[in-house]
Write a structure and sequence with these properties.
With 128 residues, this protein is an all-beta fold. The chain has a single domain, classed as Immunoglobulin-like (Sandwich). The protein has strands at residues 2-6, 9-23, 26-39, 45-56, 61-67, 75-76, 81-90, 94-105, 111-122. Strand 2 and strand 3 (26-39) form a beta hairpin. It starts with a strand and ends in a 6-residue tail after the last strand. Residues 3-128 form the ApaG domain. This is Co2+/Mg2+ efflux protein ApaG.
Length: 128
């Protein structure tokens, strides 16, 4: 697990290799990641958008942006935690992700960025 705190928002990430399958005559490696967003600040915040940079061992880079996370824009009061699970596909058994969330402090109405720590994606069978 990797963790990071930015402006009172703690991000924790766990990953899991889910398996392989063929799509368009290419082997794909499926990964799942579980993210916990914990509000350790004194103000309520709302997650509005996400930015991901996904890179595999073949140097293929994919940028993913969008509103919220898995269709939600959670509001976190002080002490609240929002957890969600998502996933990605790579063309190689190794890779990584990094990114950030754009959040709004609901007390000050100021927007701010919360860094998601870089995390690795590794197919367990390919580690030997």
């Amino acid at each position: 697990m990797v963790q990071q705190v930015t402006k009172g928002i703690k991000i924790s990430v766990e990953t899991k290799f889910e398996g392989t399958f063929y799509k368009d005559n290419k082997m794909h490696y499926a990964f799942r990641y579980k993210i916990a967003i914990e509000n350790q600040s004194k103000d309520s915040v709302q997650l509005n958008s996400r930015y991901w940079k996904i890179k595999d061992a073949l140097n293929k880079v994919e940028i993913v942006t969008g509103e919220g996370v898995v269709g939600k824009k959670p509001v976190l009061k002080p002490g609240d935690t929002h957890t969600y699970t998502s996933g990605c596909l790579l063309l190689s058994p190794f890779g990584g992700m990094k990114g950030h969330y754009r959040m709004i402090n609901l007390t000050s109405t100021r927007s701010f960025r919360v860094k998601v720590p870089s995390f690795r994606l590794s197919a367990t069978h390919a580690l030997n």
